[in-house]
């Protein structure tokens, strides 16, 4: 149960904006968008606050800015990198049927909140100043490591990284560090001279605290963030606020790999959302965002996901079938089917089960169980952020992704109709084959009243 059902609160760690988001980054975006949709459905759209941040201060951004814009002053170059990358991110994920979060805070707009939190931690004896840095003192928290289930002794024994000499313990982590040269910086807290910038973890504690309060319902992100990022967020927030928990529920999505291998630039199988949607890099063609969404949701979010061309093909076939049945009709009524899907998703977001159930509903729609079936089916699928388009929008999208020129297709269909009228079956078959060679599938249907043959077409992949 939420702490306050009139305001269910969720925080999800968003992207660090220095490069195109890859398909692995799309997984938490899609998974937590699904949860956002489900919570809005259950508690009401005005009773859910979803905060997903943008990390726009980070050393990776600085490095990229210096590389891409060597002639600009660093702060201007950083502005270019972060605004360009943020715009691209928004464009990419909109194509995946993702709703905007309630708040999308940026780290650079919350520096004051971070500094206040850091000063509070020092005051309470949970952080210390050393050589221009402020560090969190892990020994000051008796259950540090609880979220990721590690003991401090084990972690210290396993710390192989070169430890900065000013740290009391190798596990102590940076809350604030000095900036030099052109590095981005703000006046430092805790009486430190000069300017500095925050460590990575403190931004999420500050933004979550500001927008959701000291304790909230759900915190999410990819499994790789459990340690150290989330462990350190918990440490900062709990110690600063004196609370027992930061969030009541932690949800982590499993990692995605590509065709059975870890996705990496060196293996040449690294793929961005943009490349998947707009280029022919994966499987030799472009893919609709909704196909990526369904393919992702076919695996339970906690499990590792193997992203394959075959998986996309399966998802696309399913969507083609589903769209064919729902047609272009607008339906307003909700349904018992929607409730069934809601119940399945409420059990730890069991999307594979929900999709299996939708396939059962689809079979019933196909056999025209009753006239309202299409509408009930569409509503149920909408809960997963699927079938949000009409059939024609979907078909338009698919044909725009292929290189097929619809003018040419129509011309050939007209020629074929002419050949058929002249009973020139050889020519009619030849045209059908020519279209098939272009990846076009024809469907002839007879008007029951006039007996006239009507030909429709689709891009058959
Ligand atoms: P990053 O920009 O690397 O901090 O990642 C942003 C989000 O994407 C985090 O929630 C990561 O856990 C998640 N993420 C990164 N790579 C993958 C992957 N291969 N599979 C699933 N999630 C990922
Ligand atoms: Zn975070």
Helix and strand arrangement:
Layout: E1 8-12, H1 23-43, E2 48-52, H2 59-68, H3 74-94, H4 111-123, E3 127-130, E4 133-136, H5 152-158, E5 173-178, E6 186-187, E7 195-198, H6 200-212, E8 216-222, H7 226-241, E9 247-253, E10 256-258, H8 273-278, H9 289-297, E11 305-307, H10 309-326, H11 336-345, H12 351-366, H13 373-382, H14 391-401, H15 406-421, H16 425-437, E12 440-446, E13 453-459
Parallel strand pairs: 1-2, 1-8, 8-9, 10-11
Antiparallel strand pairs: 3-4, 4-5, 5-7, 6-7, 12-13
Helix pairs in contact: 2-3, 4-6, 4-7, 6-7, 9-10, 11-12, 11-13, 12-13, 15-16
Bound molecules: adenosine monophosphate and zinc ion (ZN).
Quick structural gist:
The protein has helices spanning 23-43, 59-68, 74-94, 111-123, 152-158, 200-212, 226-241, 273-278, 289-297, 309-326, 336-345, 351-366, 373-382, 391-401, 406-421, 425-437, and strands spanning 8-12, 48-52, 127-130, 133-136, 173-178, 186-187, 195-198, 216-222, 247-253, 256-258, 305-307, 440-446, 453-459.
